[in-house]
Amino acid sequence: MDDNNNGRSVAWAGEKGGEAMSRSFEVVLKKVVDHSYAIEIGEKLFPSLIRDLQQGLVPGVSKYAVITDSSVEPLYGRPLLELLRQHGFTAELFAFPAGEKSKTRETKALLEDQLLSHSYGRDCCIIAVGGGAVTDLAGFLAGTFGRGVPSLNYATTLLAAADASVGGKTGVNTPVATNLIGVFHQPRKVYIDLAAWRTLPVREFRSGLAETIKHACLADAGFFRYLEENIGRVVSPDGELILDPEICEEIALRNCRIKYEVVRQDEHESNLRQILNLGHTAGRALEAVSGYELLHGEAIAVGLVIQARLGVKLGYMTCDEADRVTALLQQAGLPTEIPVSITNRMLVNKMYTDKKVRSGQIRFVFQDGIGAMKTFADGSYSVPVEEDTIMALLQELRG
Question: In terms of pTM, does the model score above 0.85?
Answer without folding.
Answer: yes
